[in-house]
Amino acid sequence: MQQLEDNFDQSQKPKPQKKDPELLQYLEKKLGGGKVATQKQFLDHDRQVLRFFTRCEDLPFIVHYYLADDTFEIRECHKPNDGRDGFAVYLRRQKLPDRMDVNQPGQNFIGDNYLTCDEITPDSDIFAYGRTYQIEGVDEFTQRFYLQRYGMQFPRGNVRFEQPAEPVAREVPPYNGFGDEEDTKGQMYRLVPQKPKVDFFKAMDNSAKVLRFTARFNTRVPEDLDRRFIISFYLADDTLGIYEPAQKNSGIIEGKFLHKRQ
């Protein structure tokens, strides 16, 4: 009889129930509880930021992790003439979910799980809204922080840009005889040729200044030994012209031997 009473008492005792973490989190959310006190974390880690130098789709990015409130910020690195819009902040400061799950009709409640600094390792990547950021290095503070707290060694690094290709040297074609030599160069450097630019101040200061030299042929041909030339160098536009004066009984008509040109 005593044994039956003991069995009856044991059967009346409530059985321990298994804890359902999702149900517990749902009830806490529904009752408005479960808030974590972040004041101590803010006071201990205010103005402490972890900096990760990453690369996504061959473009450099800097990922900031604020230890005060466990938020992320992604900045895009630019260099001059990179052809991209110069937005400083690529992703504004916010908490970063560690997975992109969405509740479906009839599906159990899925809590908000956010990425924290202890989940980032030297061999892992940072996932942000469907994009993968590969860690290439960190700054000095981040390296010391992970080594002292978690015993993980991150490589030191910095923003690394791809080296631009060396420009191909352009060979100036020979003068084609049409117009001036500046016109030939203008057709090479621009698709639509433009009028050559003239140094206005140089032209005004040296408008009437001409250097003249007398010269003759350096030859052994008897007919050219007596020929004389006047070489004129115009300082206004750095052009040169050669004029041949008349010589008695030479049979050569005087005139321009070389048109004014550079």
Automatic annotation (TrEMBL):
Location of this chain's protein in the cell: Cell projection, Cilium; Cytoplasm, Cytoskeleton
Domain DM10: 46-150, 207-262
Keywords (A to Z) from UniProt: Cell projection, Cytoplasm, Cytoskeleton, Repeat
Organism encoding this protein: Favella ehrenbergii
Identification of the protein by name: DM10 domain-containing protein
GO CC field: cilium; cytoskeleton
Pfam family, one: DM10_dom
PANTHER family xref list: EF-HAND DOMAIN C-TERMINAL CONTAINING PROTEIN
